[in-house]
Amino acid sequence: MSDTQSQYPVHGAGLGLRRPIVDKLMADPPVDVDFMEVAPENWIHVGGALARKLRFFTERYPFLIHGLSLSIGAPSPLNEQLVRDVKIFMAEHNIRLYSEHLSFCGFYAPIDTSMSEKEFLLAVLEESDCDLMLDINNIVVNSINHRYDASDFLDAMPAERIRYFHLAGHHVEAEDLRIDTHGSAVDNQVWQLLEDAYTLFGPVPTLLERDFNFPPMDELMDEVRRIKQLQHATAKRHAANA
Q1: Taking burial as the number of CB atoms within 10 A of a residue's CB, which of 30, 151, 197, 198 is the most buried?
Q2: pLDDT single digits (tens) 78-127
Q3: Which residues on neighbouring strands pair with residue 191, listed in sequence order?
Q4: How many structural domains does the chain have?
């Protein structure tokens, strides 16, 4: 799409809303955060004070949701009740977009090597005509674990299907093994791939994920601000070349 307002459901830099940091964010709602995201399974059917806290944020920020457990590619039947609950949740909180993992297992192993990860993803996008939430950290992690070129994978992604990026930290288990923990600062290699992605696709909305081991809020916001700085620099370059 040429109209970025219609392609992207949000803009700028976002932050994943997690329960351990809710109170800190409520006390000082961050102006550098342009949108937020939650995992619906963690908030559906939640009531009381926690539900009021969620409403505090959904009334102030554009929201996206990213599912954890639907496992669309699994051999088990689709959890239709979860899909119905997600629909209701989205309506209640004016959620702009729902993304899910396309997965059938939880192990870091290529179960079927007849197709590469890149080939499989592109085939799914083409056959289903769906949109893409692209996780920059996952590309780095998988490229190391499964020994492929991260830049080549990124280059092959269809720009017109991308709706937003995820960014997170990972754990270095060994030189050839990375674990996608979301529990540490973003790795330099991931920052570089994000910059490359902006060069390719423009300043795509990008969400910072941090699930545990939270640093002081200033450090977390520094990563959000770094995303925004890279986006602004990319926008300036694109404008100069237009």
Answers
A1: 197
A2: 899 999 999 999 999 999 999 998 765 557 555 667 888 899 899 999 99
A3: none
A4: 1
